[in-house]
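P.,

For your records, the input lines for the assembly:
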Amino acid sequence: MSERRSRRGRRPGVSGTRDAILAAARTCFTERGYDRASMRQIAAFAGVDPALIHHYFGRKERLFLATMRMPDLDTALGQVLAPPEGLDPGQIGEGLVRAVARLWADPELPRTLAGLVRTAATNEQGAAMLREFLGHAVLGRLATAVPSEDADLRAALVGSQIFGLLVARVVLKLEPLASMPGEDLARSVGPTLQRYLTGDIGTGTGG
Amino acid sequence: MSERRSRRGRRPGVSGTRDAILAAARTCFTERGYDRASMRQIAAFAGVDPALIHHYFGRKERLFLATMRMPDLDTALGQVLAPPEGLDPGQIGEGLVRAVARLWADPELPRTLAGLVRTAATNEQGAAMLREFLGHAVLGRLATAVPSEDADLRAALVGSQIFGLLVARVVLKLEPLASMPGEDLARSVGPTLQRYLTGDIGTGTGG
DNA sequence: CATACAATTCATCTAACGATGAATTGCCTC
DNA sequence: GAGGCAATTCATCGTTAGATGAATTGTATG
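Structure tokens returned:
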């Protein structure tokens, strides 16, 4: 019986530790937000010593950045939002509706975004990240797709409506929104988005 | 020179401590959310010993409840939303627009609500509170004001739009929404609310 | 084989948090 | 003025967090 008292030191074979940490961190950050997700918890979730996280990523903030920089979110939203460029502006609203429906269809993305919301709500840096993310990855595409003088405002209005639905559904679980099929929801909200994009929003443009 | 080494014991005069704690707690909870607002910080803010909070309110959770039960929020929103009963349904949208404009005009209310949002995002109990608050105090009034088969859904849609704007403006500070005058915003959003309340939202009712 | 480096664990530090109980002081009533 | 209660502070407990440095073990390189 070889007593293996001290299991210290490097393990044989390849070490997927880094990726395990990233995966665990994304799960924890997503589910609990930046503050409530602890390094120790993440380490436990990854089956790893807490010190290893510092070894790989340094401070918690760096881990968070590394986690959220993972391309998944951007590419996922990129697919969902499709390439709006070159589309007939009059049909973008409908395209957005379908995009939103797809957004709700995938249970993973809303949870990830909800985690971002949780983080953004408490963490100023998280708020900055979400702001930048929405600004560039989402609203920027819309603004260029529907060029106008107040494109920024239009995109922001669209974002606020989708965002409000997201929070109401995923974070607050406010009925009847929470358990409503995505397509129905998209049908209700579609005209709103279309108007925000190409309609009269009281600024003298559009209509 | 009487050395007053020990400043222990009751202070002379009346003690506005309880109210001071409540005020400080509201500020802290509002600005930082339930988790990040610490008892010690609240006590320091109120110029008071941390143990006094426990003396008056017990656990942190009780303090939070006491803070958020303060009637300000309910009455403020009651005034803002005016009594929608007896109004011509066709004009409720406009009334809501004005209400929303007033909502943004007062800098206090959005900050309070933002605090609730911060709490609701991380704290399950906070989410429940906000859910209930929105459900009863806000959406309930709307639903009864515009009776229809899908009144709940209509009210929830209205809520999601206003809510999205609130978060975008106050929490995320997303431009150009954040620095937009309330009236302009209300003008942009008014038709959306009107349609949600009395228009065709794809459920077979309204139009 | 020796050396360097990466991976891993252990033990520990410091700071902050919520909470509690005892001690002290003022106010009010009898 | 004696008791009782409310208000206040102090000291402290137990927990948890993030962070660090040393020690140990594997892998690669010369």
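Two observations worth noting. Chain A touches chain B through 47 residues (CB under 8 Å). Confidence is low (pLDDT under 50) at residues 1-5 of chain A.

Regards
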